[in-house]
Amino acid sequence: MVEKIVDAFRNRFGSNPYVFKAPGRVNLIGEHTDYNNGFVMPAAINRYAYFALKPNGQNLYRFHAFDFQKDYTTPTHRIEPSKTHWANYLLGVIAQMVTDRKDVPGFDCVFGGDVPIGAGMSSSAAIESGLAFALNQLYSLGYSRMQLAHLAQKAEHQYAGVKCGIMDQFASLHGMKDHVLKLDCLSLEFEPFELNMDNHSIILVNTGVKHSLASSEYNKRRQECQAGVDILKRSNGKVQSLRDITLDELMAHKQEFDPVVWSRCSYVVEENERVTNAGKALINKDFNTFGKLMYQSHYGLKDKYQVSCPELDKLVAITENLDYVLGSRMMGGGFGGCTINLVKNSHTEAFIEEVTRQYQTPEGHTPQTITCVISNGAEQIEY
Ligand code: GLA
After folding, report:
1. Ligand 1 atom at minimal distance to the Cα of residue 167
2. Which pLDDT tens digit goes with each residue over 248-296?
């Protein structure tokens, strides 16, 4: 892949570029908790957005999207949201740097990658984080990785219209080979847990669907959680987010809640607890418990948070009869994309066979399965 991107750059712009890559991510557990100041447990994986870029000495940003074979050029003094959907992920990053009064001279860029789009593996965060990382290096802008993650998140808010949390951009920039990262989304401290894959594999199964309500429902969940926080604040001014309460404290206020807001909030509080327990299970190398927590997470997302869909539920249900699957759940924002499965290494082929026998995408295709290798975050590639 990277050779193709570099060749495309040479053919188009006639010189040798600097080359960078930023990964997509998986999330083992802790879904829809990041924007509630809670806990998540993502890891970067060996699927990347690649960038070949170089300053061009002109007042122009020239982009070529290799995967779509499309171009986009804009003068450096006019950065604004575009009708070209893919360009917004790039322009949003530059816009944030300009807001920070950084100097971002014109450059040429070819980008593309192998993070599947719409699969819940954060292809958009890989693009935002990759460009942010590349420009930071190229123009010595002085941002830390965490600052880049925030900048990329704001790009998603303002130029893609999704009020996402920090998890995806964080994972793409901080990923550590062989480790999952338990992130406290309030303090932004994170703890790496070694994920010993001698006996287990992480396999994603792509439903092949991405329902169109994904981003509108996502933003709605955020508002519902905030509505819950507003109720809790009335009796305890110290509550800033769902992170600040226990399940018992929440229970004590159940009567004041609308039932939908209640089920959203109780899911979030329970999911935070599951992430903490999942961390303990990893320390004890107790993958059985870890897997059970993954199933519980799925059922919370399905029944209480209501962000699953029949295709995801079917994939999870298939695994429940397979004793070599320790855990399975929907991953990411929901309404389509992938399930994440923790499978015994001795049975990875059997797993893929069984899932592809029992599930077809709505178009009647065999679902894509991806066996993940946990990898480092964004980096420059010597080329
Ligand atoms: C998307 C968002 C993340 C996170 C997940 C759900 O991937 O970008 O910030 O909220 O959904 O856990």
Report:
1. 9
2. 999 999 999 999 999 999 999 999 999 999 999 999 999 999 999 999 9
Q: Which residues line ligand 1 (CB under 6 A)?
A: 31-32, 34-35, 122, 164-165, 167-168, 332-333
Q: Give the mutation target among 35, 168, 221 for probing the ligand 1 site: most ligand atoms within 8 A of CB.
A: 168
| Residue 197 confidence (pLDDT) | 82
Residues with catalytic annotation? 168
The closest-lying atom of ligand 1 relative to the alpha carbon of residue 122 is 7
Q: Could you give the CA distance from residue 261 to residue 80 in angstroms, rounded to a whole number? A: 36
Closest CA to 247 of 223, 224, 272: 272
95 CA to centre of ligand 1 in angstroms: 22
Q: Where are the alpha helices (DSSP H) in the chain?
A: 2-13, 85-99, 123-138, 145-155, 167-174, 214-235, 247-251, 259-283, 287-299, 310-319, 348-358
Q: CATH 3.30.230.10 residue ranges in the chain?
A: 2-195+376-381
Whose alpha carbon is nearest atom 9 of ligand 1? 165
What is the model's pLDDT at position 196? 80
What residues does CATH 3.30.70.890 cover in the chain? 200-372
117 C-alpha vs ligand 1 centroid, how far in Å?
Answer: 14
What class has domain 200-372?
alpha beta
Contact 63, 72 (CB under 8 A): yes
Q: Which CATH architecture has domain 2-195+376-381?
A: 2-Layer Sandwich (3.30)
The ligand 1 atom nearest the CA atom of 31: 12
Dist. CA 114 → ligand 1 center (Å): 20
pLDDT tens figures, 68-84: 999 999 999 999 999 99
Q: Are 338 and 212 in contact (CB under 8 A)?
A: no
Q: Which atom of ligand 1 is nearest to the CA of 32?
A: 12
Q: Which stretches in the chain have pLDDT values below 70?
A: 213
Ligand 1 centroid from CA 196, angstroms: 25
Does residue 242 contact residue 225 with C-beta atoms inside 8 Å?
Answer: yes
CA 330 and chain centroid, separation:
13
Nearest-CA residue for atom 1 of ligand 1:
333
133 DSSP assignment:
H
Do residues 127 and 20 touch, judged by C-beta distance below 8 A? no
What pLDDT is recorded for position 234?
A: 94
